[in-house]
Specification:
single chain; six-stranded antiparallel sheet; three-stranded antiparallel sheet; 33% strand
């Protein structure tokens, strides 16, 4: 297995362990030696995987600051799909796709430093079974490979994450911004709330290791279910 694949394997395994609560906020991960033995890789590979987790704010190095979004107290992993992370909290959710369309926008190309002005727009709404929707997500993605054909064929296994992977795009880095906004009339209708209801708004832009644009996703999150959790360093 290539070194980069080993590094990704270790990072993904630890990311899943954190997202599902096996390792909780403030709890130390096993040492590099133990992790290297567990995953049968070198300590250098473990160190690189831990650096990836630190970059993605799943762990914090000494003196670092990290922040993650949680759902009912469970840490969410947007790289693996929020539906999967919410399900890991023991809550059953349904996802409804509102649209998958081609979008032409030179302005977005300039804003996102994308290769072309042609994108795919995917809007989804998630609801806890038997309750009102808890999130509305609008993704902008490159019009390439399996993402482009999703306009006609739909998503791979009804999963945007799987479709991105099928298109050969591997998110390696991301930036995220979170604030609070009042719902406008259209979003309030979709989320079954009153106009002006305050919701958390998250914008996340991800790119490959080479800096190629992968996704911009704008999410509206029910503040009664979602929280922003901050971590400040760790004890020596």
């Amino acid at each position: 297995m290539p070194v980069s694949s080993k590094r990704r394997l270790v990072a993904d395994a630890l990311r899943d362990a954190i997202a599902t609560g096996r390792y909780r906020a403030g709890e130390r991960l096993p040492g590099e030696h133990d992790l290297a033995a567990r995953y049968e890789v070198s300590r250098g590979t473990v160190r690189a995987a831990l650096a990836d987790l630190a970059d993605d704010e799943y762990i914090s190095t000494h003196g670092g600051v990290g922040s993650v979004v949680t759902f009912d107290g469970a840490t969410l992993d947007p790289r693996g799909g929020w539906a999967r992370s919410i399900a890991a909290s023991g809550t059953e959710v349904t996802t409804r796709i509102l649209r998958i369309e081609r979008l032409d926008s030179p302005d977005l190309q300039a804003e996102l430093d994308a290769a072309t002005p042609v994108f795919v727009a995917v809007d989804r709404i998630r609801a806890v079974t038997g309750e009102r929707p808890v999130s509305l997500e609008r993704s902008i993605l490159p019009h390439v490979g399996r993402l482009a054909s999703a306009i006609i064929e739909g998503l791979v296994d009804d999963s945007l994450t799987a479709t991105i992977a099928e298109a050969g795009l591997i998110p390696s880095s991301a930036e995220q911004w979170i604030d609070v906004v009042p719902l406008d009339t259209n979003d309030a209708r979709l989320l079954e709330r009153a106009d002006g209801t305050p919701f958390l708004r998250s914008r996340r832009v991800s790119r490959t290791a080479e800096g190629v644009f992968v996704e911009r996703v704008d999410s509206l999150l029910d503040p009664d279910r979602f929280r922003l959790h901050m971590r400040f360093g760790t004890a020596p």
